[in-house]
Design goal:
CATH class: Alpha Beta
Order of helices and strands: EHHEHEHEEH
Structural class: alpha/beta
Number of domains: 1
Bound molecules: ligand CA2
Radius of gyration: 14 Å
Largest sheet: 5 strands, parallel
Strand content: 15-25%
Strand order of the largest sheet: 2-1-3-4-5
Number of strands: 5
Length: 148
């Protein structure tokens, strides 16, 4: 059975490609979805790509992914939680509770930026962490998820 690779994007990532191209590049979130689609096809995965500006919705999606993974229907989640990375105990608890394999992803190298971006509530409960590869990081993360 083809397993699902979830790609969840958090707050403001719908603005990709419209502002701050020096940090996040010029590609839009639709471009990122197309890249992910290609990568999933290459690795025999079925893409489920989403974005939300709502913390609770992201929590609910992680629960859903955990259930799908427990049933053998999903490989895991690539999560760019945006700024919730640095603030959300709720997302930390959701990942821990849902038991989903989560790869934390950031387009930019958060450690080379402001100090408030250096701490992540996601990293301690993530299977892997990736930052600074631009939007190509999504492709690399899908390759990594396929190999777990
Ligand atoms: O580097 C990343 O992927 C981040 O997760 C992006 C978040 C930021 O808060 C994290 O520290 C690092 C911000 C996403 C906002 O994206 C925008 C894109 C274009 C214009 C404005 C915001």
């Amino acid at each position: 059975m083809t397993k699902i690779a979830y790609v969840f994007n958090g707050p403001n990532l719908n603005l990709l490609g419209t502002r701050e191209p020096q940090i996040y590049g010029a590609q839009t979130l639709a471009d990122v979805e197309a890249l992910c689609q290609q990568a999933c096809a290459a690795h025999g995965l079925q893409l489920d790509f989403r974005q939300s500006n709502n913390e609770g919705e992201l929590v609910t999606w992680i629960h859903e992914a955990g259930r799908a993974q427990a049933e053998g229907q999903a490989a895991g989640v690539i999560l760019n939680a945006g700024a919730y990375t640095h603030t959300s105990i709720a997302l930390h608890d959701a990942i821990k509770g849902a038991g989903a394999t989560v790869i934390e992803l950031h387009i930019s190298n958060v450690h080379a930026r402001e100090a408030f971006r250096h701490h992540s509530y996601i990293s301690p409960v993530a299977k892997a962490v990736m930052a600074g590869f631009g939007v190509k990081g999504y492709v690399l993360a899908i390759e990594g998820l396929a190999q777990f």
